[in-house]
């Protein structure tokens, strides 16, 4: 693509000559080639600007101009939010790549199984080895990759991308514009057992899992169905790899959940919640809107709107930081107490 077309689509202010510059892709400051663009999201990248080979760099010019080399060899693409502009640039290049590598639907017609009572919309690409049960519906412009299992009475919206080896159990619902990465399991049994005299009795889960519009689910994550009603992932939520969401969990809109997080059954998460990696959420609790939970936190009680928490058990991050400082000083304090005790003796 021509750099001037990228600048126009991203509504950026270019500092430097952009005429006739042909761009082949995006790279990091360290690895970008001479025909690629890159980005600098903050001051920690300033040193890398000295040696980058990128022909154009997205940055906040006002905040970085004092640290730029005197002889800047690249075009500056000025943005108040470089990371967002970078994300939008990746979308542009992906759309070009998708169009270039478009696969004719006719190549795969008849090489997958679809139940007699199931229906699919227009312009879908369903790869070989896909199984679709009875009574299911797939919307328009979907891509379902090899070895995907879609059960009975499943509803999938428009513009959904499902990567290989995904399993979608019966009665699951997936909205529009979702991305489901490889190995994801949606709608599996929740972990429910009642203890009897002779052992554990399995609770049959008759509910379903629902994923609303614009949700992305990372590789090998699992979303259990409800015990008797539903598990729901709110619109716009982004889930990383290796996340476990148990039965009857309700997650609000536009949440971000990092890898190896586990959310126990019947907990309710508000809107715009951010969870770091390896967070553990206990069952039957409520987390408010706009909450931020630091990595490796263990949340065992309700959290109010807007709180920022850390630790296990998790509490206010300001108090947690103070506690960590004190914890590091415990050996020193212990030695002093021993010395005081000896002088008294």
Care to describe what's here?
A hairpin with a 2-residue loop joins strand 19 (about 195) and strand 20. The protein is of the alpha/beta class. About 15% of the residues lie in helices and about 25% in strands. The protein has an eleven-stranded mixed β-sheet. Strands 6-9-12-15-18-23-26-29-32-35 form a ten-stranded parallel β-sheet, with no helix packed on it. The longest helix is centred in the first third of the chain and has 19 residues, at about 80-100. The chain folds into two domains: about 5-100, MurE/MurF, N-terminal domain (Udp-n-acetylmuramoylalanyl-d-glutamate--2,6- Diaminopimelate Ligase, Chain: A, domain 1, 3-Layer(aba) Sandwich), CATH 3.40.1390.10; about 165-320, Hexapeptide repeat proteins (UDP N-Acetylglucosamine Acyltransferase, domain 1, 3 Solenoid), CATH 2.160.10.
What are the salient characteristics of this protein?
alpha/beta, UDP N-Acetylglucosamine Acyltransferase, domain 1, eleven-stranded mixed sheet, 5 helices
Write the layout of secondary structure elements.
Elements: H1 3-10, E1 13-15, E2 25-26, E3 36-39, E4 56-59, H2 61-64, E5 75-78, H3 82-100, E6 113-114, E7 119-120, E8 125-126, E9 131-132, E10 137-138, E11 143-144, E12 149-150, E13 155-156, E14 161-162, E15 167-168, E16 173-174, E17 179-180, E18 185-188, E19 193-196, E20 199-202, E21 208-211, E22 216-217, E23 222-224, E24 230-233, E25 238-239, E26 244-245, E27 250-251, E28 256-257, E29 262-263, E30 268-269, E31 274-275, E32 280-281, E33 286-287, E34 292-293, E35 298-299, E36 308-310, E37 315-316, H4 317-328, H5 330-344
Parallel strand pairs: 2-3, 3-4, 4-5, 6-9, 7-10, 8-11, 9-12, 10-13, 11-14, 12-15, 13-16, 14-17, 15-18, 16-21, 17-22, 18-23, 21-24, 22-25, 23-26, 24-27, 25-28, 26-29, 27-30, 28-31, 29-32, 30-33, 31-34, 32-35, 34-36
Antiparallel strand pairs: 1-5, 19-20, 36-37
């Amino acid at each position: 693509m021509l750099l001037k077309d990228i600048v126009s689509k991203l509504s950026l202010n270019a500092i430097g000559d952009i005429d006739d510059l042909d761009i082949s892709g995006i790279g990091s400051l360290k690895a970008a080639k001479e025909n690629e663009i890159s980005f600098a999201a903050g001051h920690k990248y300033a040193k890398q600007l000295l040696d980058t080979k990128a022909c154009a760099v997205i940055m906040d010019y006002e905040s970085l101009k004092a640290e730029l080399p005197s002889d800047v060899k690249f075009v500056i693409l000025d943005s108040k939010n470089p990371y967002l502009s970078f994300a939008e640039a990746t979308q542009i290049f992906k759309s070009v790549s998708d169009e270039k590598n478009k696969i004719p639907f006719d190549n795969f017609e008849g090489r997958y199984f679809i139940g007699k009572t199931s229906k699919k919309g227009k312009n879908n690409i369903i790869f070989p080895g896909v199984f679709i049960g009875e009574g299911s519906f797939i919307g328009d412009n979907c891509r379902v990759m090899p070895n995907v299992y879609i059960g009975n009475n499943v509803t999938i919206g428009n513009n959904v991308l499902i990567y290989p080896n995904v399993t979608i159990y019966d009665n699951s619902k997936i909205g529009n514009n979702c991305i489901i990465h490889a190995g994801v399991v949606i709608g599996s049994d929740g972990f429910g057992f009642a203890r009897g005299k002779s052992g554990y009795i399995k609770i049959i889960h008759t509910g379903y899992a629902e994923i609303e519009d614009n949700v992305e689910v990372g590789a090998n994550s699992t979303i259990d169905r409800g015990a008797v009603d539903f598990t729901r992932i709110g619109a716009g939520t982004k889930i990383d790899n290796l996340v476990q969401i148990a039965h009857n969990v309700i997650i609000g809109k536009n949440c971000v959940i990092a890898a190896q997080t586990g959310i126990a059954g019947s907990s309710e998460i508000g809107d715009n919640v951010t969870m770091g990696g390896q967070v553990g959420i206990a069952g039957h609790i409520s987390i408010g809107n706009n909450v931020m939970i630091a990595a490796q936190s263990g949340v065992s009680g309700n959290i109010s709107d807007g709180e920022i928490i850390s630790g296990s058990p998790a509490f206010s991050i300001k108090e947690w930081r103070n506690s960590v400082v004190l914890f590091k000083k415990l050996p020193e304090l212990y030695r002093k107490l021993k010395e005081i005790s000896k002088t008294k003796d």
